[in-house]
Amino acid sequence: MIGVSVLFALLSAIVVHAAPPLENQAADLHRLRLQIKALKETSTVLDLIRAEGYPVENYYATTSDGYILNIHRIPHGKTGKRNGRVAFLQHGLLASSSDWVIAGSDKALAYVLANEGYDVWMGNLRGNRYSRNHTTLNPDKDAEFWHFSWHEMGETDLPTMIDYVLEHTGADGVYYVGHSQGTTTFFVMGSVKPEYNRKIKAHVSLAPIVFMNHMTSPLLKMVAAWHGVLTGLFEMIGVNEFLPSSKFLNFTANFCSRGLTQILCENSLFALCGYSPQEMNITLLATVMAHTPAGASTRQIMHYGQGISTGIFRRYDFGWKENRKIYGTLHPPEYELQHVTAPVYLIYSKNDWLAAESDVEKLYARLGNSKGRFLLSDYSFNHLDYTFGINAHKIVYPKVLSLFGRH
């Protein structure tokens, strides 16, 4: 127990951020927490979309290994304009389809695309709030439910959802936008199932995560340094789902300065990714917190930790003994990025804790069909600002529309 306490203390110490305190801190924090709690209990993605006056549809696709994935659809904008194109949006780590609509009408990417006539589909990967279902396994009782990383998401979840969307719409390809882990899974899919490249009209990566040699997230650095110990610890105490209802977040909150930073510090997504005060929309904070974190497996986090530690984009490392059984080699195979032949565009920024400029450029050089890379001029733009930032609809989304317009 002493070792665990020390580890928690180390992890806690690194998620403290400097930010100005709120006025009447205690009362403000109490009200905000009550608001977050109420929204968590009453607000879903479907509610958010209907509240904005957009049509929304709800679908389920079942993978070959039994995971039931929830897909949300906005078939068109308020005017009914249609351009015959199908967009597929894939969320990042600890997130859900809510990321694409939280910013509201005319500002969230899902609405921006729908207003332009796109038929917008938003996937939810296994284990998150909306895809926490299985044909035989119970996520609250069966540890086996959580035995996946983002490899299985790229190898199985994405192909399953893309095939479902294409079959339902009759389209021959989708315009794919991924954010963070939504890009990781795309590059896994393109590498291990190259036949799916032809089903992608164009792919835009927002803050792409593949190589992580130069990422600066303190929490992920700690995970990378301790990933062997943490993996064993999680297996020993049976922690399979990462953080969402964990005592860890309450523990770390005690180490955070009061005010806005304390609320952010209690949220595992912001603890991992950081935030930009210039792009933070305070009026949306309760809604964001009510929908994130949306769930993930510890193995997803550990897989990223392995990538940071080795600097290699490869399959999950189970240890030499298990690797020989699973892969036939001592070390996991690398993903062959040259097999990703779909048209790919990368959008990234200098202030991103996870998608470092040099790592994105390394990815660009390895892909089989790189079409363009775009470094944002706004230095303050951080990893989460692509979905929650005040200026994302001005800085990022017009570029997405322009790039899709080339295909």
UniProtKB/TrEMBL annotation:
SUPFAM superfamilies linked: alpha/beta-Hydrolases
Cited InterPro entries: AB_hydrolase_fold (IPR029058), AB_hydrolase_lipase (IPR006693), Hydrolase_4 (IPR022742), Lipase_euk (IPR025483)
Membrane-spanning parts: none
Domain spans labelled Serine aminopeptidase S33: 107-229
Keyword Glycoprotein: yes
The name this protein goes by in its record: Lipase
Family affiliation: Belongs to the AB hydrolase superfamily. Lipase family.
A Gene Ontology BP annotation from the UniProt entry: lipid catabolic process
Keyword Lipid metabolism: yes
Keyword terms of this UniProt record: Glycoprotein, Hydrolase, Lipid degradation, Lipid metabolism, Signal
Species of provenance: Acanthoscelides obtectus (Bean weevil)
UniProt signal peptide: 1-18
GO molecular function, one term: hydrolase activity, acting on ester bonds
Gene3D superfamilies: alpha/beta hydrolase (3.40.50.1820)
Catalytic site positions: 180, 352, 383
Source superkingdom: Eukaryota
